[in-house]
Design goal:
- The protein is an alpha/beta fold and 218 residues long.
- The protein has a single domain, classed as Spore Coat Polysaccharide Biosynthesis Protein SpsA, Chain A, CATH 3.90.550.
- It has a seven-stranded mixed β-sheet with strand order 5-4-1-6-9-8-10, sandwiched between helices. A two-stranded antiparallel ribbon has the order 2-3.
- The model has no long low-confidence stretch (mean pLDDT 87).
- The protein contains five helices and eleven strands.
Length: 218
């Protein structure tokens, strides 16, 4: 299975692109690649509309999604690089624990599975009061991309309260409602978390120093 790390979009309110936030001296994108390789994954790529990743030694799949955090006219869902073979989309702005990556890599699905925090309860070291998405693992790519188009059409019809993101997409995939989503995905209940800003970075740094140790990775 190919693993694609999603690192697109424009966030003008941030000084540093989130995928380049550093924990223990290691950017998020480098940590994710390292953990995937340690979990036995060999087929890794990055999906992005930025020229920031050539130094990493993995293929960069360029796409035209110009999602702007401050606008709505382009869809975040376009960031899923089109594939017709099994693929796991890993979100590039997430700080993953080793056990979270192992859980994603080792999980078997026949169609599509969603990974996020807070299945039943947040882990003791989880830093946010709400759940965050981490990955989609896709065997049935035809169905997955049909659901993306449905989610986008629902948005055009005004059926979402916000631009469709992972939770809304999962609602379409599982034909369910948002308030029942917590019962039908794989929960990652540790300190794995999406990094939205520098405050999140400081919080997770403290936790990582305590759990993983404080060391720079060269």
């Amino acid at each position: 299975m190919k693993y694609i790390i999603m690192c697109g979009g424009k966030y003008p309110h941030l000084k540093t692109p989130k995928w380049l936030y550093e924990i223990n001296g290691e950017p998020l994108i480098e940590r994710t690649i390292r953990l995937l390789k340690e979990a036995g994954v060999e087929d890794i790529a990055i999906s992005s509309n930025h020229d920031l990743f050539d130094y990493l030694g993995v293929p960069v799949l360029k796409h035209d999604n110009g999602f702007d955090y401050t606008k709505r006219e382009t869809y975040w869902l376009d960031a899923f690089y089109p594939m017709n073979e099994p693929v796991c989309y890993i979100f590039g702005d997430v700080f993953f624990s080793p056990s979270a990556i192992d859980a994603i890599v080792n999980y078997k699905t026949e169609d599509v599975m969603f990974f996020a925090s807070g299945l039943y309860a947040f882990g003791a070291d989880y830093i946010k009061p709400w759940a965050e998405p981490f990955a989609f693992k896709v065997e049935d790519t035809e169905y997955f991309f049909k659901c993306i188009e449905i989610a986008k059409e629902y948005d055009r019809q005004g059926k979402w309260n916000r631009m469709p993101v992972s939770w809304e997409l999962w609602q379409v995939i599982r034909n369910t409602t948002l308030n029942s989503i917590k019962y039908n995905y794989v929960g990652i209940n540790d300190y794995t978390c999406d990094m939205d800003n520098e405050e999140d970075l400081e919080k997770i740094q403290d936790i990582v120093c305590r759990i993983e140790g404080n060391h720079n990775i060269s």
